Amino acid sequence: MSQTPIPKRINQWLAAYHLGNLSPAWIQLEKGAELVQSVGGAWACYFDNKPAMKADISTYCDVLQGMLPIHEPFELPHMQLMDNQYTDIIALEDETCDWLLFLDVTHSVLELQRYQQAANELHLLKDQLDRTLSRHIGQEIAQLALNGDIQLNTDGERKTISTLFVDIRGFTNYNEKVDAQEVMNTLNAYMHEMLGSILDNHGIIDKIMGDGIMAIFGIASSENYHVEDAFQAGLTIQKRVQTLNGQREKNQQEVLGVGVGIATGDAVLGILGSHERRAFTVIGKHVNLAARLESNARAGEILVDKTTLLALNHTPQHHIVNLELKGIGKVDVCVIKLN
To answer: How far is CA 4 from CA 7, 8, 14, 192, 277, in A?
Structure first.
């Protein structure tokens, strides 16, 4: 669909209105030369003295040195010819002469500078907020909060999530009989496999408790349903620990197993603490259930509740046991173990 041309009168008015606010001045130059033929407009806005006829314009305007004569049209934006003033210089060609147009763009440049200053201050404020949040609640949770994925307040946000607990079996006994440096090296080796498995499957590390980890799924962005991510994280943990143990056996190092517990349900995500110290936390019945499942899982096992099992796309090979869980009571639990 073709546009209706702007009427000539309107075009003239728009041009006059726009240029009138820019204090235009113009200098006519000899064709292919730098010599002034005439000066018009608000020249006093740009020069201390009016350029003289037949004078070299470069002697009045340093920024034009080396730019003349005009071989093709050009523009020099935001030139500072006078203190606290910004000028656009536009060079134009005509058949019999050349032209220099001077426009006062101080207002728009100062506005742009104010916007840039505000943007810089906002960026610094965001960095400060990011550092503050990271210090109190951890970098991952802080970034999710800044992205708007979760709401951080004392009221909390209700959300359906999956929670995973994992703990190294036999670590306390190992700790008592081995040198402290070796204990630290061993703990880091197993932690590396467990943490990597969780993060690779879109989990968020909520807490590291000695030789155990609490992770939550359903907050970080993922293409998968959070139950799938949590279960895949549990499987990956057991597989990577199995591989690590194979390497440790070859090196004649003691091997340790891990137990995993996963449960799914509603939870409240929020901030606990005072102004001096705040911490992100997740509260819900299924969180306690996941912790109890982990404490009952033997090395190499993944214990999940029925809610988690039924939400999986493919039912893994498992068997059901009825366990008496502390503070919860008797619960049917699904036990998955690597072959």
So the answer is: 9, 12, 16, 68, 65
**Rounded Cα distance, 52 and 225, in Å:** 78
Supply φ then ψ for residue 56, to 5 degrees. -75, 120
Q: Are residues 191 and 283 in the same domain?
A: yes
d(CA 262, CA 334): 10
CA distance 45 to 56: 19
| Residues with Cβ within 8 Å of residue 104, at least 6 apart in sequence | 22, 23, 42, 45, 46, 85, 86, 87
Whether the pLDDT of residue 244 is over 90: the answer is yes
Higher pLDDT, 4 or 82: 82
| Contact yes or no for 81/68 (Cβ under 8 A) | no
Burial of 201 (0-12, 13-18, 19+ CB in 10 A): buried
Residue 10: predicted pLDDT: 56
Q: What is the mean predicted confidence (pLDDT) over 136-147?
A: 53
Asked if 152 and 284 sit in the same domain, the reply is yes
Count: domains in the chain: 3
pLDDT class for 275, splitting at 50, 70, 90? low
Check whether 272 has a pLDDT greater than 80: no
**pLDDT at residue number 333:** 93
Residue 29 lies in a domain: yes
